[in-house]
Amino acid sequence: MGCHTWFYKRVDRTIEEARAKYIANLEESIVDFTKILNDPNDECRLAYEWDNELIQHSIDIWNRQLRMVKSNLCNVAVFNKQPNDDGRLYQYENGNLYCYNDDLPHDIFRIGEYPEDKLFSLDETLKYLEDHSDKIHYASTIFEKKSEVVLKRKAIEELKKFWEEYPDGMIEFG
């Protein structure tokens, strides 16, 4: 059937906003793991067989990251590590932050072999479909009984709608 096709919209987030979210996420992780460190009967600790050394090592790494981020260092890393929240997944590409959520399209078409390509416009997407026509599938399931021509036409309509609504969006595969 091929790998998934993920559709992202561009997010306008300043480095200050990104840093605040990242810091809050790091601080939450430190608090959570400190509780685990102090509770030898913690459910996660027992299930994953975490020992004190591993837990403390994680806390130490997050504390080091926290110091660096609070010192305004590692800005690209801050954008690359935006926490996934409320079903949103973030991706940082070409100096822009992109977000996927359940309101965006998914799997309008699929392709095999997990390409690392990223698409940034309707023209680029249509060219990609043409250049890889032998690997593209338009059915959402293997049970789809409509003709490939009908499915492709419907997919192109959905792609046009996506790119009209999110002209600065992105498509990736995985």
Account of the protein in words:
The chain has 174 residues and is α+β, with helices and mostly antiparallel strands. The chain has a domain at 102-173. Helices cover 48% and strands 16% of the residues. The strands form two sheets. The chain has a five-stranded antiparallel beta sheet with strand order 2-3-1-7-5. Strands 4-6 form a two-stranded antiparallel sheet. The two termini are 12 Å apart. The model has no long low-confidence stretch (mean pLDDT 92).
Oligomer: single chain
* Helix proportion: 40-55%
Rg result: 21 Å
Mean pLDDT: 92
Assign an overall shape.
elongated
Q: Quick one: biggest sheet?
A: 5 strands, antiparallel
How many beta strands in the DSSP annotation?
7
Ranges where pLDDT stays below 50 over 5 or more residues in a row are none
User: What spatial order of strands do you see in the largest sheet?
Assistant: 2-3-1-7-5
**Strand/helix succession:** EHHHHEEEEHEHE
Helical segment tally?
6
Work out the strand percent. Answer: 15-25%
Structural class: alpha+beta
Distance between the termini: 12 Å
Please summarize what this structure is.
The protein is of the alpha+beta class and 174 residues long.
